[in-house]
Amino acid sequence: MSAALELDGLKKSFGKTEIIRGVDLSIGKGERHAIIGPNGAGKSTLFNLITGRFPQTEGAIRLHGQDLAGKAPFQINRMGLSRSFQITNIFPKMTVFENVRCSLLWSMGYRYNFWSMVGRSRALTEGTDDILDQINLTARRNLPAGVLSYAEQRALEIGITIAGGADVIMLDEPTAGMSHSETDYIVDLIRTVTEGKTLVMVEHDMGVVFGLADQISVLVYGEIIATGTPEAVRANPKVQEAYLGEALEDH
Ligand SMILES: Nc1ncnc2c1ncn2[C@@H]1O[C@H](COP(=O)(O)OP(=O)(O)OP(=O)(O)O)[C@@H](O)[C@H]1O
C-alpha cells in the first residue's frame, strides 16, 4: 500500500514548549487510521499541523508524496485533503441542499471551470443529491440546516467534508457529544462515505475507534508510542500502561 500521508520527524513548539516531539507516521492509501491518546497529548495540534492551520517547527508532512511545507489550508484542501471541524460548521439558515451544493460548487468551480453554466448547474444538482443520498439526508433536503438534529448536522458536515471529492478525509472527534444510537448511526455513515478513501480521525470513543480503524496510532505526550492494528495496539503493554488500561476493558 503506498502512503497517502507521511509525517517525518514532525515537531511543533508553542513558545518554548514542545508539544509534538518528533512524530514519524505513514498512513497508507485507503487506510482508516485513528489517532488516540490522553487529554493534552497533542492530537488536535497534530491534526492542525497536517491540515495546514499551524506551521510545523521541524520535520515534514507529505500528501501523496508532495511536501506540504508553507501550504495554506485551502491549498492543502485542493491537493485532496479535506477536514471536518469539531464545532459544527454549517450555515443554519441555508437548506441542507444549499449547504452541500455550496461546498461542491467551490470544488467544481475549480476543477471544471470549462463547463457551460447549464451543464455545470445540472452536474452540481446531481452531485449534491448524490451526496445527500450517501449521508441519508435526502428527506431533509429542503429544510434549513439549523432545524436538523445534532447527529443529522454532524452527518451534513461529513457530507460537506466529502463534497469536494478529496481522497484523504480528516475527522476530528466525529461522534463527540452523541448518544449510543447516534454514534452507531454516524459510524455506519463514516464507513460508507469513506469507502476507498483514506480516513484519519482523532477520536476519544474507543468503541468508535475499534469499530472503524484499520490502524491505530497512540500519541502520548507528543510522541507516538505505538502504531498497529486494533488488536496489536490493544495487546501492547506500553499502550496499556500509558493510556488504555481501563478505556479498553469494555471493548
Ligand atoms: N495554540 C496553542 N498555544 C499554546 N499551547 C497550545 C496551543 N494549542 C495547544 N496547546 C497546548 O498543547 C498541548 C496539547 O494540546 P492538544 O489540544 O493538541 O491536545 P489533545 O491531545 O488534542 O487534547 P484533548 O484530547 O484534550 O483534545 C496542551 O498542553 C495545550 O495546552
TrEMBL record:
Keyword Nucleotide-binding attached: yes
GO cellular component: plasma membrane
SUPFAM superfamilies in alphabetical order: P-loop containing nucleoside triphosphate hydrolases
InterPro entries linked to this entry: AAA+_ATPase, ABC_AA/LPS_Transport, ABC_transporter-like_ATP-bd, BCA_ABC_TP_C, P-loop_NTPase
Record keywords, A-Z: ATP-binding, Nucleotide-binding, Transport
Domain ABC transporter: 5-246
CDD domains: ABC_Mj1267_LivG_branched (cd03219)
UniProt-listed Gene3D superfamilies: P-loop containing nucleotide triphosphate hydrolases (3.40.50.300)
One annotated GO molecular function: ATP hydrolysis activity
Pfam short name (any one): ABC_tran
Protein name stated in the entry: ABC transporter ATP-binding protein
Lineage, highest ranks first: Bacteria, Pseudomonadati, Pseudomonadota, Alphaproteobacteria, Rhodobacterales
